[in-house]
Amino acid sequence: AADAPGTVFLPHESFVLAPGEAVEIDFPDASRKNPTTCLTVEISREKVTQVSERLVDSLGMTEVAEQWQFGNPVLHTHHNSETQRLLNRLIKLFMENHPDRDLLIDLNVSELIVRLLRHKTRDFLLTWCSRDPEANALIAALDWINSTLSQPLDITRLCRHAGMSRSRLYVEFKEKIGCSPVELQQQLRLKRAAERIRNGEAITAVAYDLGFKSPSHFCRRFKAFFGCVATEYKERSGS
Q1: Torsion of CA 101, 107, 110, 112, to 10 degrees
Q2: How far is residue 160's CA from residue 197's CA, in Å, rounded to a whole number?
Q3: What region holds the HTH araC/xylS-type domain (predicted)?
Q4: Counting Cβ atoms within 10 Å, is residue 33 exposed (0-12), middle (13-18) or buried (19+)?
Q5: What confidence tens digit (pLDDT) does each residue in 163-181 have?
Q6: Is the whole-model pTM more than 0.70?
């Protein structure tokens, strides 16, 4: 919100605001020759409710939905490259005079809601891990991954820990999390790395400590995920 403490706004990030909330964003590097593009999408409560109910039904996650709270009225969140491409498509649609413009915008907004809700659901499940790591098989698997980020992921041991077959594990992750166990581990490693870099830790030490093969391998993954190299991220975050 406008009166909240300042935070660093980086590439591949968005603010999700509740009705009546606002943010003030400053882009000190932007200029007429080097402009910054921003997109604001206002989505009705009815649209969000409609999409979220369909998502809960399709995922069979009533147990999660009953305990899920939206939390802070201002959510500062990172989004992946697929969501970034979706936002770029929306910008293009808003700027062009396509005969099906309104329909295409509505479809893309629905997809955006799904992606944001999936992200929120994933965060909720990971938080749930810390409270009740044995709540169900999926939570047990998530807790295992989250607590062993620096180690290579052994799918056989993960299946045994969660009490699921390999095929069932991959189905659960694809349906509930939206990615494979290995992809989730990679994303969690990168988020943990970003947090430690913001806290002033050395990039090379963080890369090795979280199980990356080399600093160059880490930097490639980091740029693909965050949209900037780790050194630039460190500078922008003021570390």
Answers
A1: -70
A2: 34
A3: 139-236
A4: exposed
A5: 999 999 999 888 778 789 9
A6: no
